Each structure stands twice: as C-alpha cells, then as structure tokens.
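2 proteins. here.
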Amino acid sequence: MRYWAKDKLYVFSFKFSVKTEDRFMPARLRLYSLTLWSALAAVLLVTPLATAQTDQKPAAKKAAHRANELTLAGLRPGQDRLSRAMGLYYAYLGGDPTNSAHDAQTVWLDSCRKQVLAIDFDSEKKIQVVRVSYTPWLVGDCAPMPPGPWKTGRGLRVWDTAAKVAQLYGEPDSRSPSTKDGQPLELWYYAFDWAGPDVPQVMEVLCTKEKDGEPGRVVEITLAAPSL
C-alpha cells in the first residue's frame, strides 16, 4: 500500500500470515481480525495527510500599493527655482506672470483649459509648493485644446477621475470632507515622508464626490516640499 502527500511518499506494508492452527479459527474471529487490521491501516493513512495539511504555510499578505510623487507641472518642490518655471511657461502662455505675482507666489492662468497654476517660493526663489486647479469660471474663446502640460510626474491631471488617483498612488493616508467655492469636495491626503527627506513630503488632491452615477473628479492637485 502506498500513499503520496506534498511530495512525500508514505509506504505502508502489511503482511498477513496464516498459521496452521488459524485455519481452524472460527469465521467470526477471522473476520474480526481482518477488521482490526483495516482500522489500523485507516489511522496510519489519515495521520500523514493531516501532517501534510498542517505543513502548508499561509500565503504572505500582499503589501499595499503606494507610490510617491516628485513633480507637478514639470516642477519639483524643494529643488527647482522660480527661474525654471519662468523658462517653461513664459513661451507656453505667451505672457509674464509677474504682473499677478505676490511676494511669495506666482500665478499663471490658462483660460482655454480653465486651469490655474500657482507656485509658492521662498526668499531664495526656491519653489516650495506647486498647485494646479480647475476653475470653471475662466472663459476663453478657444478651439478644442489637447491636454496641457500641467500634470504630475505619474500623469495625473485635473478632471481625471478619483479612481485614477488611487490607481496611481494607492489609497490616501486620509480622506476628509472639504469645500471650495461653496462646492462640497473630498480631500485626499498623501504623506511621502516614508520616501525620504529629499523628496516632496505631501500631496493633496481635491475631488468632487460621486453623484448620480457620475464618478468623482480631480479639481485640484497640490504638491509641497514641506508638510502642509
């Protein structure tokens, strides 16, 4: 008799001998003897099977997907300076944003795509915060436009679905209710301190709420070097 379990071969050998005097054993006793041997064989077969099952190790739990972000609108907070932003977007928008600049912030308006790019910088003109917002109140007499360059390094843009945020970056560290211009929104907060001190530490994504079968949409993305 042979039994296999988990690449292990269990071999059981049973040898029965019938003595001369057993021939004259009553049939009832001989049947009882064979039944006893069958029960013993069943116990030996079940034991290695149970051992094989207990040897199985539980599958390791899959680590949750997460990814950090380095850039927004082609700019890396904490590394790039305002001069890089000027070089990227002066020709793109055909205008100098300094007329709308504050002491620590510069703003570009893209009326055709209804988007605003705001950049906060420190006294050394090093960029600290980059923010892209969807602003439906902007009006431009424009033909249909292709997507602009204001996206994250992983390809997230304003007006993408909220599901895409989770697909690219995993679940946020927190979700909380928020509002903007009187519109109820949801704030997705990502902390990137686990990726090291030399990368942007925080990303915040404002999304509309799913309603009447319409998916939630991204209306604002903020990437910051320091914690907000």
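next one coming up
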Amino acid sequence: MTKVNGFTSISNAIYILFTMLKIQYMKNLFENRKLPYVTVLTLTVAVVASLTFGMEGQTSQNVVAQNDSADTAQLQTANVTGELTKPAGGNPYGGEKIGDITISSDGHQTNIKGLVSASPAAGNVYEAWLGDAGGSEYKLSLGQLNENGTINVSQHMVNPFTYTIFFVTEEPQDDVDPNSANAIAGVQLKAPFGQ
C-alpha cells in the first residue's frame, strides 16, 4: 500500500469512486427530470470542486496534525508535589507547613491542586498566585481559593515555566487592587519551572 502525505492510494481511490457515484446519481436525476438542469449543473460543479480541492484540504489538515503532535512531543512536562509553607527568610515559603500542593503542566495546560489548612480572617479570602521571583517579578493571579481552603486551578497558559514560585495571599473579599498582598504561604517551583 502506497502512502502519500498520510493517505493511502486506496483511500484516494475510494474518494474518487464515491465522487463518481455522486455525479452518476445527479445525472440520473436530471435524465428523469426530477431536478432542473441548473440544479444538476450546480451540484456537478460542487462535486468537481470538492474532488479537486478536497484532497488538498485533507492533506493540509494531516500535515498540521503531524506538526502539532511533533511540537507537543518536544514540550517539557512538570509534576511538582510539595508542602505549602509560611514565609521565612524574606521568601514567601520556607517556614512552618500550612498545606500541600501538586502542580502538573505539559508546558501549556497547567493543573494546580492543593489545600491550605488555615482560614482567612472574617471578610477576607485566600488568592492563589504564580510569581517570577528574581526575574521580572511578575505575579499572575489564579483566582480565589475555595472556602474550604482547597486549590483547584486548571488553565491553558502560554508558558507556565517562566514562574519560579506559587504562593497564596489573604485579600479583602471585594479587593479592587490588582496587586498581591503579602504571602501567607508558598512553595518554590523546581525545574523545568524558572526558565
């Protein structure tokens, strides 16, 4: 069996045979006067166009799929499991354990699950963040933690590996300031994070 751009010559032959059967069916409808001539002519042109351009479109889609899968194979993956700890030594992590965290990423889809064992003060909420400490200092809010302290974030990111820390802050319930408050817990992310 010969393969051409991901398609076998048999699949090409089946496609051509199916198209020829459609043309014959339309010809029979015209001869039996069930369809007006203009309709049959229009359908014939559509079939010929699909025969001419249809295989080219299928080949392009196949090449894109091959390229996408090749790019995905080159992506790094990360699975970080650790303890969320209180701030220490000027870092948002490193002190007493206050929860657990699991972060997995394929370089785009990033899933973060965890639990903070403390509770925010009345009128406050916990908010999760990724930060680029020691680099751009950029902080990305991942949103509010659930009321029971669970962290459940799933996002498609351009490059999550630029971040070096995950941390949690305590914020006012209706906070309008987009900046993070001081961390109440955090974890340093290991390679491939921090690139």
